[in-house]
Design goal:
The complex is a heterodimer of chains A (190) and B (165).
Chain A lengths: L5 E5 L2 E5 L4 H23 L5 E6 L2 H4 L6 H21 L4 E6 L21 H10 L7 E2 L3 H12 L2 H34 L1
Parallel strand pairs in A: 3-4, 4-5
Antiparallel strand pairs in A: 1-2
Chain B lengths: L2 H26 L14 E5 L4 H12 L3 E6 L2 H14 L4 E5 L7 H8 L5 E6 L16 H5 L1 E7 L2 E8 L3
Parallel strand pairs in B: 1-2, 1-4, 2-3
Antiparallel strand pairs in B: 5-6
Helix pairs in contact in B: 2-3
Classes of the chains: A alpha/beta (190), B alpha/beta (165).
Chain lengths: 190, 165
């Protein structure tokens, strides 16, 4: 059984169903990640040197309106990694918080790589290449890093307005795409 | 030396540090993971390895000589990823199909990876809502509820929404 975000059709046409509910989001992004890391630490500590990559997000560093809970869970991931890095350094466990912006994936909705949107494999290689840096949080793609630094330095009201505007546009685009996909599926089923 | 001179020197130092670190980090630094057992039989464990960044890490770590443990919900999908990795890199793979939102997820994973020399953990699994949405406009049902949709051969065969109490 899969939990899957989708559209269902009813008498009034399509209704959007957000199937990744906020509670499951917190369950997975926060609760599972914390419990699993807790269980894995003794395993990692068996070897002299080991490594944890914690996936955070641009939206965890620069809060993004219209996905406030996701932003908050990703801020949690980043701070958890930074706190653990200090705690675990003496035992040979290196902790890195990885901060991506858009990367080609089902979650981001980008299906083709561009100069600003790397594919997942090159993103992972870029992350590995930067593992030796002394900072715990790293934005492995140079453009993501630059925009993150600029956005963190700029006043909140400027960045807040900008991200909400971006998200509103993304919402319209993603809904249209999902509706089209669902309509195609419905047509194919008939 | 006056206060402004010192402030100027400090400011130039801070900016120079940031710029030099930026260029060093992005265009020069090339860490290899031999310290963490690459090419020496060590394992890397990746959650959410079915696609996206998780799969990217699985492929990249395998290319650098780590055996990989792949974790995600979709068993069939994980097998595809494992086959893809084996075709490219001479490493061992282990797939552990587990739903991270299940209360027993951690115990299930730990029981299946016992005895493995794991030195790299990629905490990647994560979900987001399908569309950006204001918190105030999010239904309480969408906050508390769980939707279960069974899919077979790409067709939705069963859909139910439960409200958790």
């Amino acid at each position: 059984m899969f939990i899957f975000p989708t559209l269902i059709s009813n008498a009034n046409g399509f209704r959007l169903v957000l199937c990744f509910f906020l509670r499951s989001m917190i369950n997975i992004n926060v609760t599972f990640t914390t419990n699993f890391t807790r269980a894995m630490i003794p395993v990692l500590q068996k070897s002299k040197n080991s490594l944890i990559y914690m996936l955070s997000s641009f939206s965890g560093i620069v809060p993004v309106g219209m996905m406030p809970v996701y932003s908050a869970t990703k801020a949690y991931n980043d701070v958890l990694a930074r706190a653990l890095a200090a705690e675990l350094a003496p035992t040979g466990v290196t902790v890195k918080s990885v901060v991506p912006h858009f990367v080609v994936s089902a979650m981001s909705g980008f299906s083709r790589a561009t100069w600003a949107v790397p594919d997942a494999v090159s993103f992972a290689h870029a992350t590995i290449a930067k593992t030796g840096i002394w900072d715990v949080s790293i934005a492995p793609h140079w453009w993501h890093d630059l925009t993150m630094r600029i956005a963190s330095a700029a006043p909140d009201f400027l960045i807040g307005g900008f991200t909400v505007k971006q998200m509103k546009a993304a919402r319209v685009k993603l809904m249209r795409r999902a509706e089209k996909k669902a309509a195609e599926k419905a047509a194919a089923a008939q | 030396m006056g206060f402004l001179n010192i402030a100027g020197i400090v400011a130039v130092g801070v900016i120079a540090y940031a710029v030099i670190k930026f260029f060093y980090l992005h265009f020069i630094m090339k860490t290899d993971l031999s310290k963490y057992g690459a090419k020496k039989g060590a394992w890397a464990l990746i959650t959410g390895a079915r696609d996206g960044i998780g799969k990217g890490f699985a492929v990249a770590l395998a290319a650098r000589g780590f055996n990989v443990i792949l974790i995600a919900r979709n068993a069939e999908g994980l097998k595809e990823v494992a086959a893809e990795i084996k075709a490219k890199s001479k490493v061992e793979t282990l797939v552990v199909p587990v739903d991270a939102s299940a209360p027993t997820a951690v115990a299930e994973i730990m029981s299946k990876i016992e005895g493995k020399d794991i030195r790299v953990l990629v905490n990647n699994v994560g979900v987001n809502t399908q569309f950006p949405c204001n918190l105030a406009e999010t239904d309480q049902a969408e906050i508390d509820g769980y939707a279960f949709i069974s899919i077979s051969d790409g067709q939705i065969v069963h859909l139910s929404c439960l409200i958790a109490t």
